[in-house]
Specification:
With 415 residues, the protein is of the alpha/beta class. Helix content is 32%, strand content 19%. Bound molecules: uridine 5'-triphosphate.
């Protein structure tokens, strides 16, 4: 133990992070051990370079061009053709769903994992249960159980599993057709580049963004599990879209027929100024461009039919071939920085609860991996059928429980 401690002290000295052991002696044995393990796991070179890059302009010389897409409701005769291909694959058990539920849900402000949130329907079903209802219903149509993989963060894993246990996994069976896995984490840093210590005396870590999905699916052995189960395709979506249509034979049929390994859904932008990321090509490769990167002129550009050239919003509803996930998981993604409020223990051992942002959090974005494929299919679907996000608290008025509830109810009334 002493040798180990000495070794760790040297590492911390090298990276100017010696304060991480400031309160070591006040911890109990279990926490002492945990802290040392955490420190050993930190990639300080990476952490250093992430800090050094904060505030540096990201490359701007990329060539952005529009990307082709299909409109689900303008496929005409092809609709049935693709649908039949997809239906066959689903019946053969080749599709699984992955729900990304590792986010912090800071904007929503719900205490507990976002998936446990009740959006206020008369049934009081949680987001997890609404998604599960959809999976079960679709599974019945094809006489299969759609395997469900749920990504949690270390922070919310225990609470998520307890919630599922309490609800008897909504009829699913743990480790048979429902699986939980953790995403990676990165330490949070203050503006001086010092790693923060949380209220428990341990390193303050935060989930590494939804882009962590590929690496965690690969590292936790989930892709291996999938292949053993005969799964070839995974539909990956966020936990906070209660209308996510995860079982879509048309999308799947298109991907199979066109021989692409990624097929994404889009909804058309509500207006050219809407603050959403849109599909594009970046230096010829499929990608998503953030609203902050797009010029006003580009946002307005339309084709001869009046359709926006950059109008296909990315809604985090994407289908991947399992091999593509594995490839993406083995390729490091760039990290983006977010400036967040994070409570921490200061030098004197006092808990500080800031009222404004004070810490850097580093996140990878799922769509940064799109450049790994030469081509992908994009299918425009109807917003009112497939997109009801729960991002903000009701007071904000958009993408909040109230708007999601209304969209969900309207959709249910129609079918
Ligand atoms: P968002 O970033 O939009 O939402 O993630 P969030 O993290 O839940 O909430 P804020 O930003 O703190 O308010 C979109 C989806 O990606 C998942 C989220 O759970 C959500 O379903 N996600 C995000 C992860 O699974 N892990 C992450 O590290 C980040």
């Amino acid at each position: 133990m002493d040798d180990k401690l000495e070794e760790i002290k040297n590492i911390l000295k090298k990276y100017n992070q010696e304060h991480l052991l400031n309160h070591y002696e006040t911890l109990d044995e279990t926490h002492k051990k945990e802290l040392l393990e955490q420190i050993e796991e930190i990639d300080f070179e990476l952490a250093n370079s992430l800090y050094q890059n904060v505030g540096k302009q990201e490359k701007q010389e990329d060539k952005i061009t529009p990307i082709e897409y299909l409109d689900k409701y303008k496929l005409y005769d092809d609709y049935k053709y693709y649908e039949n291909i997809g239906k066959k694959a689903i019946r053969e058990g080749k599709l699984a769903a992955v729900t990304m539920a590792g986010g912090q849900g800071t904007r929503l402000g719900h205490k507990g994992p976002k998936g446990t949130y009740d959006i206020g329907l008369t049934s009081h079903k949680s987001l997890f249960e609404l998604l599960c209802d959809h999976l079960k219903e679709e599974g019945k149509k094809y006489d299969v159980i759609i395997p469900w993989f749920i990504m949690t963060s270390k922070e919310n894993n225990k609470e998520t599993i307890e919630f599922f246990e309490k609800n008897r996994y909504f009829g699913y069976q743990k480790n048979k057709n429902i699986f939980f896995f953790n995403q990676g984490e990165l330490p949070m840093m203050d503006t001086e580049g010092k790693i923060l210590i949380g209220e428990d005396g341990l390193i303050k870590q935060a989930a590494d963004g939804h882009g962590g999905i590929y690496e965690s699916l690969l590292k936790t052995g989930m892709t291996k599990e999938m292949k053993q189960m005969g799964i070839e395709w995974v539909f990956i979506a966020g936990v906070d879209n209660c209308l996510a249509k995860m079982v879509d034979p048309v999308l799947m049929g298109i991907a199979i027929d066109k021989g692409v390994t990624v097929a994404c859904k889009s909804v058309v932008k509500a207006n050219p100024q809407e603050k959403v990321g849109v599909f594009c090509r970046r230096n010829g490769k499929p990608n998503v461009i953030e609203y902050s990167e797009i010029t006003e002129e580009m946002a307005q550009e339309a084709d001869e039919n009046g359709e926006l050239l950059y109008g296909e919003s990315h809604i985090l509803c994407n289908l991947f071939k399992v091999e593509a996930v594995e490839r993406m998981g083995a390729t490091p993604l760039p990290y983006h920085v977010a400036y967040k409020k994070a409570s921490y223990i200061d030098k004197e051992g006092k808990l500080i609860e800031p009222t404004s942002p004070n810490a850097y959090k580093f996140e990878a974005f799922l769509f940064d991996a799109f450049g790994e494929v030469d081509d992908m299919a994009i299918l425009r679907v109807k917003r009112e059928e497939e997109f009801a996000p729960v991002k903000n608290a009701d007071a904000v008025g958009v993408d909040c429980p109230k708007t999601a509830r209304e969209l969900y109810q309207k959709f249910m009334d129609r079918i």
